[in-house]
Structures are given as C-alpha cells and as structure tokens.
Design brief:
The complex is a heterodimer of chains A (111) and B (112). Chain A is 0% helix and 56% strand. Chain A is built from no helices and 11 strands. Chain A is globular, with a radius of gyration of 13 Å. The N and C termini of chain A lie far apart (36 Å). Chain B is built from no helices and 11 strands. The chains are: A mainly beta (111), B mainly beta (112).
C-alpha cells in the first residue's frame, strides 16, 4: 500500500497562473478530502467527496478554486487564477469510513 | 458549529517525563476522534483512532482516552524521547458527516 499520493510535492508559480494539484487516494477508500494548512488558520477543509461525488464544498474559498474526482483513483484541485494568498500546504486525505490517511502534501508558493 | 481546542499550545519537557496533551470539543455528537502527529514540513501521521463507543486506545508508549459526554480527550505519552518532538493534532469526525474538525495543535519539544 503506497498510501495517499500527492503531486507535485512543491509548486512555485506566478500570480495569475493556473495551478493543478493531484491526488491518488488509497484503493478502496470511498471518501476523499482536500485540506489547506497555513500558519494563521491551521488545517481547513476545502471539499470532500464520497464515492466520487462532491458532498461539501463550503470550505472552498472562492470561485477560483475547483475540485474534481473523475474516478475512484484520482482527484484534482485547481486554482485559476492563483494569488499570493493561496500560498499554503495543500493536503489530500482518504478514508474507508472511519479514520483518515493523509498524503505528504503539496507546498504551493504563489509569487 | 464544532470547535476543537487543544491545551497547551506548546510544551517543553526533559527527556523521560510522562506527559499529557489535552483536547476538548464543544459538540459531543462525534463519530470518532483521531490523534495525529506532524513533523515540521511534513504530512500528518495517524497515531490513534478512538470510536465514540470506546473509552481509550493504546499504541506503544501512547494512550488516548475519550470522554464523549464531557467533550474531552487526552493523549498520554510515557517516557518521552527527543524523537517525540512534533506537533500533535486532535481531530473529531461528526456523526452527521465525514468532515474532520481539527484543533490548532500542541507543539511538543522533548529536550535531551
């Protein structure tokens, strides 16, 4: 079991560019979550999916953020256009029904 | 709205001490509670998961307790080691959804 796999590990981009973060959950886990972590706000839930269906996206900060889960083994979080205040570590996590496993995160820096 | 609070925010102890980290939550209607460890610049590692029907879970030198009715959990670390230095996060899952609500964490430093 390779765990939850996120890519890229680090991303540096210029303001206004599109950024796409990727996540491969653990096989058999039916829930997938995107979190953002900053020093100021800690860990915040952005969106989560159950069986590939978005359940709660109330944490998505703005329309610039979008997330998809086209199948059970892949999800993306897209920011378009990116802004410096989007700089954070973005974590993906998956869960079979109880208990979470987190990926190593993507550190995003928008300059 | 569920709120999770962790006390203390930071803790520094000499190696070998036993220590307790505290977590409280405002809404007792939780499905489970999970303790995580996060090393600087790294992801979250799950330490212990306690279901709402359970009172405690143990793994090695770690013991987590849950008092659902009073909205409290503690993480007990026995014989602390410098390698235990990290941020410890408490999080609850609500019965009515799968969302994890996190506390702000306790930064632990164990001095050799």
């Amino acid at each position: 079991d390779a765990g939850v796999i996120q890519s890229p590990r680090h991303e540096v981009t210029e303001m206004g560019q599109e950024v796409t973060l990727r996540c491969k959950p653990i096989s058999g886990h039916n829930s997938l979550f995107w979190y953002r972590q900053t020093m100021m706000r800690g860990l915040e839930l952005l969106i989560y999916f159950n069986n590939n269906v978005p359940i709660d996206d109330s944490g998505m900060p703005e329309d610039r953020f979008s997330a998809k889960m086209p199948n059970a083994s892949f999800s993306t979080l897209k920011i378009q256009p990116s802004e410096p205040r989007d700089s954070a570590v973005y974590f993906c996590a998956s869960s079979p029904a109880s208990g979470y496993t987190f990926g190593s995160g993507t550190r995003l820096t928008v300059v | 709205k569920q709120e999770v609070t962790q006390i203390p925010a930071a803790l520094s102890v000499p190696e070998g001490e036993n220590l307790v980290l505290n977590c409280s939550f405002t809404d007792s209607a939780i499905y489970n509670l999970q303790w995580f460890r996060q090393d600087p610049g790294k992801g979250l590692t799950s330490l212990l998961l306690i279901q709402s029907s359970q009172r405690e879970q143990t793994s090695g030198r770690l013991n987590a307790s849950l008092d659902k009715s009073s909205g409290r959990s503690t993480l007990y670390i026995a014989a602390s080691q410098p390698g235990d230095s990290a941020t410890y996060l408490c999080a609850v899952t609500m019965e009515y959804g799968n969302k994890l609500v996190f506390g702000a964490g306790t930064i632990l430093r164990v001095k050799s």
